[in-house]
Amino acid sequence: xxxxxxxKPTNILLVEDNPGxxxxxxxxxxxxxxxxxxxxxxxxxxxxxxxxxxxxTGSFPDLLLLDLNVPRVHGLDLLESLQEExxxxxxxxxxxxxxxxxxxxxxxxxxxxxxxLTKPNDHDExxxxxxxxxxxxxRTAQLPTAA
Length: 147
Known about the structure:
Elements: E1 10-15, H1 19-32, E2 36-41, H2 44-55, E3 63-66, H3 75-84, E4 93-97, H4 102-110, E5 115-118, H5 123-138
Parallel strand pairs: 1-2, 1-3, 3-4, 4-5
């Protein structure tokens, strides 16, 4: 079981193509947690490459924040690909997107997303979201270690 200790930062992989949203998310986590590191990639293909590069060391991120509408490999396709990789099936994925479309929500959960959140409208709401993610996914939830 994965536990977070003060000496080991929590690593979040953020898949986000909008630089403004990426900055807001990273800044929000910086404000709420000293021990959370956000690494940003701008599309689904880059996310798969990042995860593939980390396969040899087994140093996968602790959490993946995923915008659905990213270029090259759509977020839903990325979710499906994660389930095809045995080492990645336990990686917690939170979809963080502007879409409130019922089919996007249903398809995300069908493809094993752990949560579906709609992006906030302002900085303070991003900070509240980061605090909630940190408190639940980083500090409270008991998660399996990567295979």
